[in-house]
Write a structure and sequence with these properties.
Helix content: 40-55%
Number of domains: 2
CATH architecture of the largest domain: 2-Layer Sandwich
Structural class: alpha+beta
Low-confidence stretches: 23-31, 94-104
Number of helices: 6
Shape: elongated
Order of helices and strands: HEEHEHHEHEHE
Largest sheet: 4 strands, mixed
C-alpha cells in the first residue's frame, strides 16, 4: 500500500473520531462517509451493548454456578466411593479370633453353594432345597473332630448398588451360619462370617455382558451369587 493511501485513511479515521467527540446532538451522531451522512442513535447503541454484556455476564455466572454444583456432586461421590473402598478393605482383612489362634494342620473341607439353591433371587430366607444341602453339609461336619473354624463368605453378583449387595450377602451368610449351627450343634465361636458383596466374581461369568436381556443376564451371573463355606478341623479317629 502506498504512503499516500495510508495517510488518507489515517486522516479519515482522525476526522471520524473528532466528529464523534464534537457532536452535540445526543440522538443523532453525524459521521462523514464521503457524500452521505449516516445518523446513529447513540443511546440505542449503548443500551444494546449493555444488554449484550449483561446477558453474557449472567450466562457466565450460571455456568460457574453449574460447575460448582457439579464439583460438589463429584466430591460427594468420591467421598462415598472412598468409604466403600475402606469398608471392603476392612472386610478383606482377617479378624483376630481365638478359634484360629492355631493354624489347622489336618482336614480342610470346602463347599460352594449357589444362592439359587439356598435362596430366592434377592432374598435371604432359606429354601427347602437349601436346608437339605446344609443338612448334608452339617452331617459331614459332625464327622470332624476338634473343629477349629467354619468360615462362611457371602457373595452376590455385580448387579445393583454395592451397599445393597454387601448387606444382602451378609444376611445370607448369617442365615447359613445359624442353620449350620443348629444342625451341627457347634459352638458359635467356631464361625467366622464375612460379606464380599459383588466384589469377587466366581471366575465363571466373564462372558456375561450387558448386551444380554435383563433376565438372561441375571441367569448368566448365577455362579457369582453363592455362599462359600470352608471348614477346618480334624477327622475322628
Amino acid at each position: 500500500m502506498k504512503n499516500t493511501t495510508k495517510t488518507s485513511l489515517l486522516m479519515l479515521a482522525v476526522a471520524s473520531a473528532l466528529t464523534l467527540m464534537g457532536c452535540s446532538n445526543a440522538n443523532q451522531l453525524i459521521v462523514p462517509d464521503g457524500t452521505h451522512r449516516v445518523p446513529i442513535n447513540q443511546g440505542a447503541v449503548t443500551e444494546s451493548l449493555t444488554k449484550i454484556y449483561d446477558n453474557e455476564a449472567e450466562s457466565l455466572r450460571a455456568k460457574v454456578k453449574q460447575l460448582q454444583q457439579e464439583e460438589q456432586v463429584a466430591r460427594t461421590k468420591i467421598s462415598s466411593l472412598e468409604s466403600e473402598l475402606a469398608s471392603y478393605k476392612l472386610q478383606l482383612q482377617i479378624k483376630p479370633n481365638a478359634a484360629i489362634a492355631t493354624v489347622p494342620t489336618s482336614t480342610l473341607k470346602k463347599a460352594n453353594l449357589l444362592a439359587s439353591t439356598l435362596f430366592k433371587f434377592n432374598q435371604s430366607a432359606l429354601l427347602k432345597a437349601g436346608k437339605t444341602a446344609l443338612k448334608d453339609l452339617a452331617k459331614s461336619i459332625q464327622l470332624l473332630d476338634e473343629v477349629q473354624i467354619i468360615e462362611i463368605i457371602g457373595h452376590t453378583d455385580r448387579l445393583g448398588e454395592s451397599k445393597h449387595n454387601e448387606v444382602l450377602a451378609s444376611k445370607r451368610a448369617k442365615v447359613v451360619r445359624n442353620y449350620l449351627q443348629s444342625q451341627a450343634k457347634l459352638d458359635p465361636l467356631h464361625f467366622e462370617v464375612q460379606s464380599r458383596g459383588g466384589l469377587i466374581p466366581s471366575g465363571k461369568t466373564e462372558h456375561c455382558t450387558e448386551v444380554l436381556a435383563d433376565e438372561a443376564l441375571i441367569e448368566c451371573l448365577s455362579p457369582d451369587r453363592r455362599v462359600e463355606i470352608n471348614v477346618y478341623g480334624k477327622p475322628k479317629a
